[in-house]
TrEMBL record:
PANTHER family: 2,4-DIENOYL-COA REDUCTASE, 2,4-DIENOYL-COA REDUCTASE [(2E)-ENOYL-COA-PRODUCING]. Keywords: Flavoprotein, FMN, Iron, Iron-sulfur, Metal-binding, Oxidoreductase. Residues 377-644 form the FAD/NAD(P)-binding domain. The keyword Iron applies. This is 2,4-dienoyl-CoA reductase. Transmembrane segments: none annotated. Its cofactor is FMN; [4Fe-4S] cluster. Residues 8-330 form the NADH:flavin oxidoreductase/NADH oxidase N-terminal domain. InterPro entries: Aldolase_TIM, FAD/NAD-bd_sf, FAD/NAD-binding_dom, NADH:flavin_oxidoreductase, OxRdtase_FMN_N. It comes from Caballeronia calidae. One of its GO terms (molecular function) is iron-sulfur cluster binding. In the N-terminal section; belongs to the NADH:flavin oxidoreductase/NADH oxidase family. The keyword Nucleotide-binding does not apply.
Length: 673
């Protein structure tokens, strides 16, 4: 049992005592807008409150229509909206928690034609150009923040957080790059920080105490023309003087070219920028970004970087993060692997957020946790993500589960994923699965190939087939040449490929293999390697903390990726992470060819044709990453015997297979058996 004292110590914030130092950070889920009324949102937050999180910060609500994230985005500017907020605050309070409303004006990031900013100038990530606020409009906007804060109190929130980071309106005022105003809100440093200071002062005056007033500062802007560290510290002191109870820290702007929260970012890598804020003030400071385990949180507090930590995605992954920390069962925490696949990538594509490792997130109402009417004997064949997720969820419901896995370890494709640079977090996912299988007493039959005879010879009430996938082998001359190797052999280290490599297939695995072949494993684990690679001066001595990025530091392998489709390679990668991968591969001069047809592999290398022109690429190896086909042999054999097994994961549908769909499907099935 691991006891982590610092994260469990209560903390007084202004006039409020928080029971521990773990906070659920603000994150939009789209439940705020796509799912009215707010019952699902209320159930989502209530589960986190019941899981003993010290404080919840809501997703950001705009104080006026021009500040919304997009058409129909979260807006809180009238009494008619009070009731739907009350549903949420009541649910959180009933579950024993506290919740603060974040007020977020999106400024020039607002995807609406009427968006506004301190100065003219379109953001690279928005097609709408902002209107520059007049002085009178700036004062009116400050008033809008105050009105929303007052409404938040009426709705039952325990305080408000002013969103001053990530490049939204307030942050746009403080940075020279977006503030060229000549009135009292621009020009000098003091004038640029006046807008947030006026907001904090006016909100404090209107709310009085005890409501908590939190300001989220940009600890390092990571854009040209951002603040330097000395200015951040001076600004933080003024925020304290203006009446804030707590300073939360943000990292980077949304348009920044440096990744800040993806799995490729080492854990707690922004600690120096956060410590700079903490050393400047006497009120508590909260750390954020890439904090996903209680141990990392404990270390940040114990080493004086911050007084408490904010975690958004880790609370999607496990609503009981804080409770399990208190109980000393941290190895049972379902850890966020920073993949962004089911949360940010879904939000960015107009779907409600959930979580790859926890499909219940955001769907608490449709996935009730309960014991089955009768306990049944269930055989699960296949110990990949689908089989393990089913086994765990079915066992939690009181069933007696036996899990067959032909390999001597569980994990399936996850064992491959964890070998890829930047995917070390998959180790945590495997740890969680193993610990839960063990604690729930699932009978593991490892190294055993389940057959029709095994399954029919024992008295199972239900058989679930999760036998996964087999790599697809393309059909063209020379595919059996020794130069042609499967991605599995490469990622498991069975084959060490030569210096000149072609990759056939540019889906998630083709990109994973390309990254693997570059040998940059350290970048996601070692802070200095990460800073060098992405050009970050974390001491923030230069504006925005941007230094010159180093060239590619890995092996000098020459890698050429191919696909048959004519579209750009990587077009279908996740929205929030694909750009990072593509930027890395570009830097490493990886060649990419779309619209290829494959003619042959022989001693010369790979023969292919593009636009009717034949080419030959001399290579040592051709790595086949051409997708997968379902492994359904056992399923078909059982059906032929008249049985009706269930089939889940890759064995059900191989195309677009990923752990997200596999775990979701397995969990859905488990709650019905
Ligand atoms: P995939 O995404 O289906 O990609 C397969 C690739 O092989 C495509 O580029 C396809 O492009 C090519 N291909 C398909 N059939 C072929 C054939 N007969 N001959 C030659 N080329 C062929 O599969 P995957 O890359 O193996 O990934 C499997 C799943 O794991 C995906 O759903 C993916 O989302 C998931 N995954 C996700 C990540 C992530 O980071 N999010 C990482 C790894 C894997 P053309 O048809 O254009 O040639
Ligand atoms: Fe974390 Fe991935 Fe779940 Fe998002 S989907 S919360 S990044 S594990």
């Amino acid at each position: 049992m691991e006891t982590l004292q610092n994260v469990l110590t209560p903390l007084t914030v202004g006039a409020t005592v928080l029971p521990n130092r773990m906070v659920m950070g603000a994150m939009h889920t789209r439940l705020e807008t796509l799912d009215r009324p707010h019952e699902r949102l209320a159930a989502f937050y209530a589960a986190r409150a019941a899981g003993e999180i010290g404080l919840i910060l809501s997703g950001g609500f705009s104080p006026n229509p021009e500040g919304v994230m997009e058409e129909g985005g979260p807006l809180f500017n009238g009494r008619s909206q009070l009731d739907e907020h009350r549903v949420v605050t009541r649910a959180v309070h009933d579950a024993g928690g506290k919740i603060v409303l974040q007020i977020l004006h999106a400024g020039r990031y607002a995807k609406v034609p009427e968006c506004v900013a301190p100065s003219p100038g379109k953001a690279r990530i928005n097609s709408f150009a902002p209107h520059a606020l007049s002085t009178e409009e700036v004062w009116r906007t400050i008033g809008d923040f105050v009105e929303t804060a007052a409404l938040a109190m009426e709705a039952g929130y325990d305080g408000v957080e002013i969103m001053g980071s990530e490049g939204y309106l307030v942050n746009e005022f403080t940075a020279e790059r977006t503030n060229q105003r000549t009135d009292e809100f621009g020009g000098s440093f003091d004038a640029r920080i006046r807008f947030p200071l006026e907001i904090v002062r006016a909100v404090r005056e209107r709310l009085g105490r005890p409501p908590m007033l939190i300001y989220r500062i940009s600890s390092i802007d990571l854009v040209e023309g951002g603040m330097i560290g000395l200015d951040v510290a001076a600004f933080a002191r003024q925020i304290e003087a203006a009446g804030a109870d707590l300073i939360n820290t943000g990292v980077g702007w949304h348009e920044s070219a440096v990744p800040t929260i993806a799995a490729t970012v080492p854990r707690a890598v922004w600690r120096d920028a956060i410590r700079n804020v903490r050393q400047a003030v006497s009120i508590p400071v909260m750390a954020s970004n890439r904090i996903n385990t209680p141990q990392v949180a404990e270390d940040l507090i114990a080493s004086g970087v911050a007084d408490l930590v904010s975690m958004a995605r880790p609370l999607l992954a496990d609503p009981e993060f804080a409770k399990k920390t208190r109980l000393g069962i941290v190895d049972e925490i379902n850890t966020c692997i920073a993949c962004n696949q089911a949360c940010l990538d879904r939000i960015f594509t107009e779907r409600t957020a959930t979580c790859l490792v926890n499909p219940r997130a955001g769907r608490e109402i449709e996935f009730p946790i309960g014991i089955a009417a009768a306990s049944r004997r269930i055989a699960v064949v296949g110990g990949g993500p689908a089989g393990m997720a089913f086994a765990i969820n079915a066992s939690e419901r009181g069933h007696r589960v036996t899990l067959f896995e032909a390999e001597h370890q569980v994990g399936g494709q996850l064992n491959l994923a964890k070998a890829v640079p930047g995917k070390a977090e998959f180790h945590e996912m495997l740890r969680y699965f193993r610990v839960r299988l063990d604690k729930l007493g699932v009978t593991l039959r490892l190294g055993e190939l389940a057959t029709v005879e095994t399954l029919t010879g024992e008295d199972f009430d239900e058989i679930v087939i999760a036998t996964g996938v087999r790599p697809r082998v393309p059909d063209f001359p020379g595919i059996d040449h020794p130069k042609a190797v499967s991605y599995i052999d490469v990622l498991t280290g069975k084959v060490v490929v030569g210096q000149r490599v072609a990759i056939i297939g540019a889906g998630g695995i083709g990109f994973d293999v390309a990254e693997f072949l570059l040998g940059d494993a350290q970048e996601s684990l070692d802070a200095q390697a990460f800073f060098r690679s992405w050009g970050v001066d974390v001491a923030n001595a230069v504006p925005g903390g941007l230094a010159t990025a180093a060239g590619h530091a890995g092996t000098k392998r020459s890698v050429h990726m191919f696909q048959r489709k004519a579209e750009p390679l990587g077009k279908r990668l996740g929205k929030s992470t694909g750009w990072i991968l593509k930027a890395k591969l570009r830097k490493a001069n990886i060649a990419m060819t779309a619209g290829a047809s494959y003619d042959a592999i022989d001693d010369e290398g790979l023969h292919y044709t593009v636009d009717g022109k034949a080419h030959v690429l001399p290579v040592d190896h051709v790595v086949l990453c051409a997708g997968q086909d379902s492994n359904r042999d056992l399923y078909e054999h059982l059906r032929a015997k008249g049985l009706e097994p269930r089939v889940i994961g890759g064995a059900d549908v191989a195309s677009e297979l990923d752990a997200l769909r596999a775990i979701d499907q397995a969990t859905r099935l488990a709650v019905t058996v």
